[in-house]
Design goal:
The complex is a heterodimer of chains A (361) and B (362). By secondary structure, chain A is of the alpha+beta class. Chain A has helices spanning 40-48, 90-100, 105-118, 134-147, 164-179, 192-198, 216-221, 226-231, 356-360; strands at 2-11, 14-24, 29-33, 55-60, 63-64, 75-78, 152-156, 184-189, 201-206, 209-215, 238-245, 248-251, 256-258, 269-275, 280-281, 290-301, 305-312, 315-322, 332-337, 343-345, 351-353. The longest helix of chain A is centred in the middle third of the chain and has 16 residues, at 164-179. The radius of gyration of chain B is 24 Å and the shape is globular. Classes of the chains: A alpha+beta (361), B alpha+beta (362).
């Protein structure tokens, strides 16, 4: 187990990581999700022992390793840039950490072939890294991280420099590759979809704080505050002011809908409604769905889906709808929102009421 | 602005190319309409940068011609082509103000001061930098510098074309939204011929009215985003467009039935006899689970919950297929049956889409 106890990091008076407690279990995939500069890399460097925290302790298997040299711990790290030794073959690249550890030739050969097999590099073992595609080069770096059977493997946006098709393929493979290793995996990404695809646990990070930590789909569907909801949504969650009066939810433009369930117990008053882009639909999903008239800024096509950038009163929203649609920019368009997909946040951004669909999912 | 024609174009980096394998660009015939917004989409190494460099004049093709409005420019130097380019990384003069950076291409051409002032203001507003015109470029963020590069690429109204080479690479994901949207608006506003090179389908499909998909030195399809999704002309387009891409299965085609192993799949149209390597293609969006035991028997191997939908991977006759299920739909487990929407099935012979002989839309 890896434990961070009250760990914080200040550099020249500026706080990069606020006081953080975190426990990571062996055999788990843990994704650090947050925008650039949220503190993902800083947190990883603290876990690895590359930097010493300003306060707090890092414990590995209950033992204090704060300040222990990274060389003395069983840690592997993979970066966004593909780092391989250009003059060595793929075999020797993967073997290099084992050679440093003084393993026998037979042990090295068996271990290299095993991790090459897992990363589909067996046929490339005699080549030099620069004769490989970008995806294969990063596979080589991943194989080297896996081969020494580290307790802790840190992956810092390892797929960010790959073409998206390669990214798609490696993303699907990574959970399979890592499932059996028993190590603690920590994986940093800026992309919510990547965090969901990798599964395991997600820690959402924002401005140096872990805002929530738990199983990926739990954090995604049950965010505790508006910041977590925004970080775990791409494009970001839509927000709009609203009022709760008795059993009615009233939007800023006067559109209202009756809401049942736990909503009835909530105090009347002003809230901030949050809903994800994929819950704004071109058709009414149910009798409760509210019709919201928006002005279309621009439509973007992703391949099999379309993003609609919308203006609704003073709010800027994004809708993600299935299929490829070509709407006229500047035209009025009606989007439907089922109240069961609305999260309500209070004035401080804390969750006041979860979306009803999430409780059921 | 100009119409650009590529005629029988081919390029090899070898001094004495022999067979087709020696060519980075195989034969390309392509017309770019005046004022069109095009994307050149493909994986690394497909030849898209080679093609861009031939259009801009950085490379002379081994064979073929480039015409601008009918005039042969094949051997004309870059400067004579009157093309603006925006590169992957910002090219900005740090010691100059934002205003001077934007005005630079106009001053170089000796434009009138009053025109320059007006035009720079207009461009600055479009890229959202009008409040920072008097700032020095030094100290601006990478995003802001790249916006200046984009603005400078667009500032001249008299260019034949504007070429963008992966212009959003350095931009933070959250910011990409904004810039993609602005670029499209800039095209609508000014109507230049634009060619946007990228390996990212979202950037390509969002920016362009027409997308040129390249694979292995060839243009495999020129089409609208809808056409690429609904009727991919080549198996590569099916695979490359959409996440996950199109499912492809080796199949025997007989009239309006496809046979896979011992299973039969009804097609939405009839096909004449085919002789090459034949496959059917179906997008994951059109694969559904069914209680009907006449469906194809599959084994569920992996389910990925990506929030707005789930990607279900299944094994079928030694193939892995993907299905996309909406959020909240019941999760299939173990042995299941699936069906394909017949009119969404494409038939491919030696990787190229086959037009049906009867029924269905081509």
């Amino acid at each position: 187990m890896l434990e961070l106890r009250d760990v914080s990091m200040k550099v020249r008076g500026r706080t990069h990581i606020y006081n953080t407690d975190l426990k990571l279990e062996p055999g788990t995939m843990n994704v650090l999700l947050g925008p650039t500069l949220a503190g993902k890399t800083t947190l990883m460097r603290l876990m690895a022992g590359l930097d010493k925290p300003t306060t707090g302790q890092v414990l590995a298997h209950g033992k204090d390793v704060t300040g222990m040299r990274v060389q003395d711990r069983k840690v592997a790290m993979v970066y966004q840039q593909f780092i391989n030794y250009p003059s060595m073959t793929v075999f020797d690249n993967i073997a290099s950490p084992l050679k440093l550890m003084g393993k026998s030739k037979a042990e090295i050969d068996a271990a290299v072939r095993k991790s090459a097999e897992m990363l589909r590099l067996t046929e490339m073992l005699d080549r030099k890294p620069l004769e490989l595609s970008g995806g294969q080069q990063q596979r080589c770096a991943l194989a080297r991280a896996l081969v020494k059977e580290s307790d802790l493997v840190l992956l810092d946006e390892p797929l960010a420099n790959l073409d998206y098709k390669l990214r798609e393929e490696l993303r699907a493979e990574i959970p399979r590759i890592f499932r059996d290793s028993g190590a603690i995996f920590v994986y940093a990404t800026t992309e919510p979809e990547e965090a969901l695809l990798l599964g395991g646990n997600t820690a959402t990070l924002f401005e140096g704080r872990i805002t929530q930590f738990g199983p990926a789909t739990d954090v995604y569907r049950h965010p505790k505050d508006a910041t977590t909801a925004r970080v775990y949504s791409d494009p970001p969650m839509n927000f709009t002011p609203c009022r709760k009066e008795g059993g009615q939810l009233i939007m800023a433009d006067g559109t209202s809908a009756p809401v049942g369930g736990a909503f009835a117990d909530l105090a009347d008053g002003d809230y901030r409604a949050g809903f994800r882009p994929n819950h704004l639909n071109l058709n009414a999903e149910s009798d409760q769905s509210m019709a919201l008239t928006c002005t279309l800024g621009i439509a973007e096509i992703t391949g099999s889906e379309t993003f609609l950038h919308l203006h609704h009163g003073d709010d800027k929203w994004v809708a993600l709808v299935h299929g490829v649609h070509d709407f006229e920019a500047g035209s009025d368009i009606t989007l439907w929102l089922d109240p069961k997909h609305i999260y309500l946040f209070d004035a401080d951004g804390q969750l006041a009421l979860p979306a009803a669909y999430a409780a059921a999912a | 602005m100009a119409r650009i024609e590529l005629k029988d174009l081919a390029h090899s980096y070898l001094p004495k190319p022999g067979g087709e394998d020696d060519f980075a660009l195989k034969t390309i015939d392509l017309d770019w309409d005046d004022g069109g917004a095009y994307a050149l989409l493909g994986a690394s190494g497909c030849g898209k940068s080679t093609l861009l460099n031939i259009i801009s004049g950085l490379l002379e093709p081994t064979r073929g011609q480039i015409l601008f409005d009918g005039a042969d420019m094949t051997h004309a130097p870059t400067t004579a082509r009157n093309i603006a380019q925006v590169f992957q990384f910002p090219v900005v003069y740090d010691t100059m103000t934002v205003r001077d950076n934007l005005a630079f291409p106009l001053r170089n051409r000796g434009m009138q001061a009053s025109y320059i002032k007006e035009r720079v203001q207009q461009i600055a507003e479009m890229i959202g930098m009008d409040s920072q015109l008097s700032r020095k470029a030094r100290g601006l963020t990478a995003d802001e510098k790249q916006k200046i590069s984009l603005g400078r690429g667009m500032v001249r109204e008299d260019v034949n074309a504007i070429l963008f080479d992966e212009p959003l690479t350095v931009i933070d994901p959250h910011m990409k939204w904004e810039l993609r949207t602005q670029l499209k608006q800039l095209h609508r506003e000014f109507g230049h011929t634009m060619i946007y090179v990228t390996h990212d389908q979202t950037e390509a499909l969002t920016f362009a009215d027409k997308v040129v998909v390249m694979h292995d030195g060839r243009v495999v399809q020129l089409g609208t985003p809808e056409e690429l999704f609904e009727k991919p002309a080549h198996t590569f387009v099916g695979y490359f467009i959409g996440s996950p891409g199109m499912n492809l299965l080796d199949a025997k085609i007989d009239g309006s039935t496809a046979t896979i192993g011992s299973h039969q799949v009804p097609l939405g149209a009839g096909y004449a006899a085919l002789s090459g390597h034949t496959q059917i293609g179906i997008r994951p969006e059109f694969v559904t689970f069914t209680d009907d035991t006449n469906g194809l028997p599959v084994q569920v191997t992996q389910v990925e919950d990506v929030g707005r939908h789930r990607i279900v991977r299944v094994g079928f006759e030694g193939n892995t297929l993907c299905a996309v299920l909406p959020e909240g739909a019941p999760l299939p487990e173990g042995t299941q049956n699936i069906t394909f929407m017949p009119d969404q099935i494409g038939v491919f012979e030696n990787d190229w889409r086959v037009t049906p002989s009867t029924g269905g839309a081509s």
